[in-house]
C-alpha cells in the first residue's frame, strides 16, 4: 500500500536526525519511513541565504517517487502543505505533528505572532546579518525537550542549526487543491512552543475525527517515539 510509505519533514533548526528514534518504531509497525533534510539543515549544504520556502517545497517533492503520507513537524507545516497543493496526486495524506497549518496570505512568522501566547518571545534571536535566527540554548531544553530523555536533548542541542528567516517570512500562496488531500493533526498537549489551544484552533477545520492527542511536549519523536509511531500507524491504516 502506498499509504504505508511516509516522508518525514523536520521543523525549525532541526534535521532528518530528529526522526532517528521514530523510524525504527515505524518499521516495526510495517511503515516504510524516510526523513529528509530541508535545504540549509542537517547534512544539506545549501547556504542559508539561498534557502526559500519554494526551495523547501521543491526538495520535498523531489524526495517523493510514489504517493506517500507526508508528515510535517512544527514549522514544516508550511512546506508540506504547499507541496500537497502543488502535487496532490503524490500525497495520500498530510499529517501535522504539532505543526502550523498555513493560512493563505500569512507567513509562518505571521501565524506565530497571531498565537494566543508567545513562548518564544526573546528566545529566537536573529543573526547580525539578518539571514538566520537561532534559539537561546539556555532556554531550549525547557521549551523543546522538557519531557525527553536527557541524552536526546543533549544530542539535539549539539545538532541544532541556525534557521533561515526568509522561508518563514514568506506568505502562504492561495490554496485551491490541498483540500483534496486527507489531513490529520496530532496535537501535543504539553507543548511549550506552540500553545496546545492554538494547535486545536488550527486543526479545527479537519474535524474531530482527524485530530488525535499525545501527552507530550513539542518533540514527541524523542519523548514518545513508540507512541508517535503507533499514532501514525493508526492514521495511515484508516480509510
From TrEMBL:
<dbReference type="InterPro" id="IPR000073">
    <property type="entry name" value="AB_hydrolase_1"/>
</dbReference>
<protein>
    <submittedName>
        <fullName>Pimeloyl-ACP methyl ester carboxylesterase</fullName>
    </submittedName>
</protein>
<dbReference type="Pfam" id="PF12697">
    <property type="entry name" value="Abhydrolase_6"/>
</dbReference>
<dbReference type="GO" id="GO:0080030">
    <property type="term" value="F:methyl indole-3-acetate esterase activity"/>
</dbReference>
<feature type="domain" description="AB hydrolase-1">
    <location>
        <begin position="6"/>
        <end position="230"/>
    </location>
</feature>
<dbReference type="InterPro" id="IPR029058">
    <property type="entry name" value="AB_hydrolase_fold"/>
</dbReference>
<dbReference type="InterPro" id="IPR045889">
    <property type="entry name" value="MES/HNL"/>
</dbReference>
<dbReference type="GO" id="GO:0080032">
    <property type="term" value="F:methyl jasmonate esterase activity"/>
</dbReference>
Amino acid at each position: 500500500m502506498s499509504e504505508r510509505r511516509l516522508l518525514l519533514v523536520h521543523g525549525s533548526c532541526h534535521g532528518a536526525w530528529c526522526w532517528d528514534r521514530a523510524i525504527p518504531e515505524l518499521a516495526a509497525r510495517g511503515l516504510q519511513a524516510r526523513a529528509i533534510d530541508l535545504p540549509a539543515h542537517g547534512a544539506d549544504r545549501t547556504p542559508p541565504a539561498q534557502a526559500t520556502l519554494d526551495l523547501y517545497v521543491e526538495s520535498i517533492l523531489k524526495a517523493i517517487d510514489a504517493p506517500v503520507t507526508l508528515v510535517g513537524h512544527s514549522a514544516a507545516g508550511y512546506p508540506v502543505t504547499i507541496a500537497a497543493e502543488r502535487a496532490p496526486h503524490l500525497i495520500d495524506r498530510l499529517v501535522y505533528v504539532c505543526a502550523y497549518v498555513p493560512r493563505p496570505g500569512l507567513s509562518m512568522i505571521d501565524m506565530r505572532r497571531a498565537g494566543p501566547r508567545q513562548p518564544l518571545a526573546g528566545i529566537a534571536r536573529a543573526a547580525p546579518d539578518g539571514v538566520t535566527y537561532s534559539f537561546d540554548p539556555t532556554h531550549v531544553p525547557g521549551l523543546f525537550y522538557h519531557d525527553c530523555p536527557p541524552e536526546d536533548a543533549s544530542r539535539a542541542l549539539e545538532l541544532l542549526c541556525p534557521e533561515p528567516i526568509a522561508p518563514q517570512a514568506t506568505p502562504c500562496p492561495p490554496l485551491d487543491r490541498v483540500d483534496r488531500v486527507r489531513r490529520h493533526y496530532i496535537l501535543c498537549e504539553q507543548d511549550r512552543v506552540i500553545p496546545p489551544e492554538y494547535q486545536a484552533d488550527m486543526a479545527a477545520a479537519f474535524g474531530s475525527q482527524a485530530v488525535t492527542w499525545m501527552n507530550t511536549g513539542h518533540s514527541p519523536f524523542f519523548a514518545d517515539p513508540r507512541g508517535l509511531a503507533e499514532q501514525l500507524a493508526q492514521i495511515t491504516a484508516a480509510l
